[in-house]
């Protein structure tokens, strides 16, 4: 990795291990088996890297210290895996390696952070944090949640419900911005790293060209287009300047499964490196153990710990499979490319969550009477009435799921109710926009009076199809 290390013993027997690169120096101080201090220093690095270094040092120390069994134990058990420490160190080392004379890749990344932070602060002030995170330009952070470097949260579960940032029940999707060496086979599409003072103007937003009134809803980010830099040849021959050897890349955490046809989307044209292989049907990649056309039981827990009911879900797959790939990184040339890609990533993050509520045995709905579940109860349903009548069926309620990729990305939900079939279309659009539509003849009998907007609102809040089916059933049968 181009690193050098050396060890020094202190006067009191402590040992300091130092890891040195061209730009950064990492010091790790041991007292016995414990890591008592970690410090990281950056040399000749403009921007906030130096000020943010203590946050990076704290992450290194957290990933190095052994995990204790209980607070009352004074002695730790075996040290944890060094995978996280190694991953973070490799990211730093590669950023250092790709830095050349006149190109400090650490500064290049923090310049993106400062520009995106400026946009986020503006959007947060006008829209609020959840909207800025899930529908705006994302929530940028440096050295957060055990990842060294710039990460941008772009989606979270239950996005309509206010929750604390540290709430462990909320799942978050983010990208970690890195620099990577430009592959030799790259023929174009993603440009090399640039090192501007900023990527966005001080005004941040401007009216769209086709908008005469400049309404707030019609504002666009006022991106800047910094020039491309050239650097002297590494041999010292200044008559043959070269472009930087690195490009920006956003690593998806977690990776997402996207249909192949989205490769032609302009925002993701360069996002599918050639080495990504093994496409397969969407649901097979998401849930490898799922038996297509076979019913899978899914327990629906009643809030308050008062029991559960059972549904049986089947993926109806007579239609053409939606071939997809699992994407782990998105190379990009400009932060605006990344912001545009978030609209696609949000769509499939929500789609995966909705399908997982039906098919993933690892995500069985737990007791929702804790954490943010109370707000969902107040917004969507009166749970005391929900539990007032016994509507538990003696056999599992059979629900058929079919994919409708041609409708943004739709999920057709079909099940019986009081002897009549029910069909609902859940439409997941770009940027995680969600709609519920009723196909012609989809609601008959007692289901005809369904409040579709209430169902849609509840599904946005819960992101749980089985839970909302139960609300639907009880509402239609007059049990709410």
Please report the number of helical segments: 10
How confident is the prediction overall: mean pLDDT?
A: 81
What about the largest sheet? 6 strands, antiparallel
Distance between the termini: 63 Å
User: Pairing-aware structural class of the strands and helices?
Assistant: alpha+beta
The percent of residues in helical segments reads 25-40%
Principal-axis shape? elongated
Taking pLDDT < 50 over at least 5 consecutive residues as the criterion, the unreliable ranges are: 68-79, 212-217, 269-275, 361-393
- The CATH architecture of the domain at 4-76 can be named as 2-Layer Sandwich
**Which CATH class of the domain at 4-76?**
Alpha Beta
Please compute the radius of gyration using only Cα atoms.
26 Å
Q: Strand content of the residues, in percent?
A: 25-35%
CATH structural fold name of the domain at 4-76: Arylsulfatase, C-terminal domain
Q: Tell how many strands the DSSP assignment holds.
A: 18
Structure description:
It holds the Pfam family Med1. The protein is an alpha+beta fold and 480 residues long. It has a domain at 4-76: Arylsulfatase, C-terminal domain (2-Layer Sandwich). 26% of the residues lie in helices and 29% in strands. It has helices at 49-64, 83-97, 105-127, 129-134, 282-286, 335-359, 373-380, 383-386, 452-462, 465-476; strands spanning 4-9, 15-20, 24-31, 34-42, 139-144, 147-156, 172-181, 200-207, 219-223, 246-259, 280-281, 296-301, 308-315, 323-332, 397-404, 409-417, 420-428, 434-437. It has a 6-stranded antiparallel β-sheet. It has a 6-stranded mixed β-sheet with strand order 12-13-15-16-17-18. Strand 3 and strand 4 form a beta hairpin. It is elongated. Residues 68-79, 212-217, 269-275 and 361-393 have low confidence and may be disordered.
